[in-house]
Design brief:
Length: 183
């Protein structure tokens, strides 16, 4: 692990030896191939590995003056590589995949408005043929989007009554000759 110096006098009192690399640029020139291999072992994509190494070297550059022992720079950069990759992995919610064609949502062809209106009218005519109680239950369940319990509460009946009445009403609607082409 790299120790970080808080002041120049602290380094002098600890007897820090001469710097292995006089500048950040000389360190990068000397160690880049080795560090790039390490980055490539952390990612599947060579371009991502280069980006990962660039980020880790940026972090190292920012901390360059605070790093006490420049002989341990490889360890510092490897830790920065690993921490950066872990952060990227945690942030990424969905993997990206390259594909030949862009996925476009399937568009459902819109029906003819006249046909849709005719179907709507036929449905209401069929619903109007139902007995008043069944009609009320179908309207509350499917047009007002109430639950079975809510429908039962509104009408003052049991949930079982709503279930059986709605089932019978849907059976009648399925057999209605005006709605037969819809099936």
């Amino acid at each position: 692990m790299v120790s970080v110096c808080t002041s120049a006098s602290t380094a002098a009192t600890r007897g820090a030896g001469p710097s292995a690399y006089p500048s950040f640029a000389s360190y990068v020139r000397a160690r880049q191939p080795v560090l790039l291999r390490t980055a490539r072992s952390l990612t599947a994509n060579p371009s991502d590995a280069e980006d990962l190494l660039q980020t880790a070297l940026t972090k190292t550059y920012v901390a360059w003056d605070r790093i006490e022992d420049h002989r341990a720079l490889d360890g510092y950069v490897r830790r920065a590589l690993l921490n950066t990759r872990t952060s990227q992995w945690r942030k990424r919610k969905v993997d990206e995949f390259a594909c030949d064609e862009l996925p476009e949502p399937e568009t459902v062809p819109a029906g003819d408005p006249a046909e849709q209106q005719a179907l709507h009218d036929a449905m209401w005519r069929a619903i109007m043929k139902l007995p008043a109680r069944q009609r009320a239950m179908v309207v509350l369940r499917y047009y007002e989007d109430l639950s079975e319990a809510q429908t039962a509460e509104v009408l003052g009946v049991s949930i079982g009554t709503v279930k059986s009445a709605v089932s019978r009403a849907l059976g009648k609607l399925r057999e209605d000759p005006e709605l037969t082409p819809v099936r």
